Amino acid sequence: THFGEQTVALEDKQGLVNKVFHDVADRYDLMNDLMSGGVHRLWKDAMVSELAPPRAGTRPYRVLDMAGGTGDIGERIVNASMGYAEVVVADINADMLRVGAERARSWRYPGQVSFLEANAEELPLESNSFDAYTIAFGIRNVPRIQKALDEAHRVLKRGGRILVLEFSQVDVPGLEAFYKLYSDRVIPPLGRVVTGDAQPYQYFIESIRKFPDPALFGSMLAKAGLKRVKHTSYTGNIATLFSGWKI
Length: 247
Ligand code: SAM
Known about the structure:
Keywords: Menaquinone biosynthesis, Methyltransferase, S-adenosyl-L-methionine, Transferase, Ubiquinone, Ubiquinone biosynthesis
Strand order of the largest sheet: 3-2-1-4-5-7-6
GO biological process, one term: aerobic respiration
EC number: 2.1.1.163, 2.1.1.201
Radius of gyration: 17 Å
Enzyme class: transferase
CATH class of the domain at 38-173 and 212-245: Alpha Beta
Structural class: alpha/beta
GO molecular function, one term: demethylmenaquinone methyltransferase activity
Shape: globular
CATH superfamily of the domain at 38-173 and 212-245: Vaccinia Virus protein VP39
Bound molecules: S-adenosylmethionine
Helix content: 40-55%
Order of helices and strands: HHHEHEHEEHEHHHEE
Largest sheet: 7 strands, mixed
């Protein structure tokens, strides 16, 4: 099996995705910075500002950061809440979580973050138990996206919010051609230099090209039962933030 243009069965897709993140886990954070020129940090900051987690309250504020990998979003949310929010960083990949747990030891509020191995399609979590569900650059890796969104809706409390940050198709003239060239000519070789293998990054580019457009993805959120669905584009449409509420 390779990741080329061929379509892979859904069960196989998860296997391929798991191998990719197993292979890159230790270099994942470095690659993110190199490939995005650090810009992924700005998008993640923008996502957390949009969430605006409370800094105090009468009840705990619980967040599920799905496909949370090495914990970037979890750390940001806890910091933004001045240590009030409790974040469960969940990911299907134990290697990504291991890197996250090591990093977490030096975070400002390490006690507010826990790590959970879980598949977004089938969460081992109670219904109506989270105030927010976040997923950054994760949903396009999940084979059955609708199933994951249904699960997100299930675990959210009424009044809870979902935020999905994901790459999108660049359609801004000028930037489009540059982005394609960058994706095809820069990312795979850069991936090979840093991680010893270009294939995971070939997968990465294709998974972005295959991800549903904002209108279709928005309708999937609505189908899962989420209300007031909207989206905002960042940096010439390279990334898009989706928001919805469980009302
Ligand atoms: N959220 C982090 C970030 O923004 O840097 C990590 C994103 S990383 C590109 C995608 C993550 O999705 C990987 O850690 C991968 O293991 C995880 N993933 C893939 N399929 C998954 C699934 N079915 N359930 C949960 N996590 C999954």
